[in-house]
Structures are given as C-alpha cells and as structure tokens.
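Supplementary Text 2. Reproducibility record for the structural model of the 379-residue chain.

All settings were left at their defaults, and a single model was retained for analysis rather than an ensemble. We include the record here because the model underlies the residue-level annotations in Supplementary Table 4.
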Amino acid sequence: MPHESGNEHRAPSADGPAMPDYGPARVRRSRRKPRKKALRYVAWGALGLVLVGGGGVAYAWQHLNGNIQGTDVDAALGHDRPAEQRDGSMNILLLGSDSRAGTHGEYGRGVSGARADTAMVLHVDKTHKKASVVSIPRDTMVQRPSCAPSHGGADTAGAQQAMFNSSYQVGGPACTVKTVEKMSGVRMDHYLEVDFKGFQKLIDELGGVDITTHKAIKDHNSGLSLTAGKHTLKGKQALELVRTRHGVGDGSDLGRIQLQQAFIKALIHRANTVDPLSDPATSYDLADTATKTVSADSGLASADKLLGLAKELKGISPERTNMVTMPVTYDAQDSGRVKPLDKASHQVWDALRQDRPIPKSATQDSVGDRSDSPVSAGS
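Retained model, structure tokens:
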C-alpha cells in the first residue's frame, strides 16, 4: 500500500484544593507538606507544558478550571486497549500539535488542520522519582488503526502504512493515543497537549529558558539563527529551536528530536527556579496562560488535578530523566521517512510495561540516537 503523506509539509499559599484521585492512573498521595515551588514539570517536543499551582491562585480556581479543554479518551476508545498498570507507575502521552490557528500565517500558510507534530511517551516509575521519555518521530510509517473523527461522522479506515503524525489529523488526540497504544502495547493513562501559539506564550511568561549551543545553528525554514555559546531563549526563538530540522543532523525529524529533548531538560531546570509564592500576581498570570493553552484528557482537565500531578512529579529532575527516540531505521521506499526497528522497539515498550529502565542495547542500532545533541540545557 502506498505511503500516506498526512498532508505533511517538510519545510516550514493559599494552597489549591486537595490533591485529586485521578482514576485508573491514581497517583500516590504524598504525606509531606507541599513545597513552595509548585511549578514542577514542563515538557515539550515541539510542545511545552507548564503546570502551576499554589501561591495566591486559589481565589480564581474556578476560572482556571474553565480554561482547560478536555477530551474523554476513555469513552472514545472503549475497552479494546492495553491493560492498566497497577504498580503505581504511569504513562502520559505528551503532544505538540502543529495547528497554525491564531498565528496569522507566521508558521506557514495554506496548512489546514493539525497533526501530531511532536509526540513523547512519558513513563513515570512507581516511585515517582525517575522517568523515561520515548520520542516517536512524526515521520514514522506505522499501522494506523481505524478512528472516529474528532467532530463526529463515520470512522476513518485504518491504514497499513501511514505517517504517524497523520493520526491526529484523522481523529484528534484520541486517535493518536489509540495509534500509540496499538504500536506499543502500553496503555496511556493520560495525554497533555499544547500548540504553537500556546508554547510560545508559555515560554515568554516563564521569562525564557537557558540553553548552550555547541555550534552555530541556522535554519532558514524555522527562522532560527544562533551562534555557538550561551543563550536565553524567549518564546519566539524557543519555538524556532524546537521546530528546527534543516539546520542540524541530516535535516530530518531525528535531529529536531534531539533539540526538543535537550530543550525539555532546560525547561525543567527553568521550572525549578520559579517560586510562585514570591510574586502571586505573576504566578496567577502564568497559571492562567498555562491552563488556557493546555489540552488534556478528561481525567486531568482541571486545575486541581494538574496541580496534583505537578506535586507528584516534583522529585523528577533532568538527571533522573532518561530520554530516547523510538528505535527506527530509514525507510527504503522513502528516505524522508523512517520505520520502527521491531525487535528493538519491543525492548523499549517492554521496559515501560515492566517499569524497568530502557536498556542501552535497545537504541544502539537506531538511526535516531546516533549523534550528540548540538544543544544542552543551562547557560
């Protein structure tokens, strides 16, 4: 069957409420007092997520709750899913969609709809002190299952060979969750998503993120131009960085994933410096921006549930986060696409199911983790 393109364009305190019980992926309650730094976990892959709580935002809690968009993934997918993990570990699908809505053509005109421009599976171990992140290249050719369209109508037929990022265009986040679960055999307990416009605004609200480039990077398609050295990236440059592909590596999505993974670690470093109690007004503005730009499954789509998740993840530092790319090889039929290395990919997904570290041997033959990232966290 011919490959689907997926319409791809290669170029361009008042403490908060009590911590919730979030259903099947119930997070263990902590007996320790909440730390002042309630802004705890930030994640992007051309994606960013900011969770903020505490410090003077309780009075506007209902407003924050009303900001968040939720999707009932459980209802959309039914019971034909991998078994839940009941050992205390948790899997969250982090999505960055390439929707241009509200960007006034700044990131490309004539691009309709949205695709899963970035997808990462975040596995939090049962201690909630360590994590593994598996990036799924958007150009991966996968078997996409049949999915119900986001806005109703008849199901869209599955495809034997479809680009991974087309799953979002076909059926929104529920279809992307379904595609990930079918290919991995790992149940996603939650998903979180942000788009281009939201990501840029979040980084600006944070005051920028510090990175170090080990060589100059210039990409005419994304607009990024950085000299070698230390930089504090505000929203526009941060978005250019996580969208860059032609200025690094072999020009494919694989090099961009390395930039995204390095940026996530830098973002976590930045989050750990923020004290919401020191400036409640600024903290509220950040919380308001975050909840307006984040979309989630219905099990996380409230400010108190996001705060509960943030508190549970507070012990996970960049040093305790292992980031890999799903093992892939170049597609012999199209050099611009990649295909999963089945045996190696099974090793990765098995490790997540069994709540074990991902073995280094799983990625040694992959084209996705062959070179060092040209960017590192911090300044």
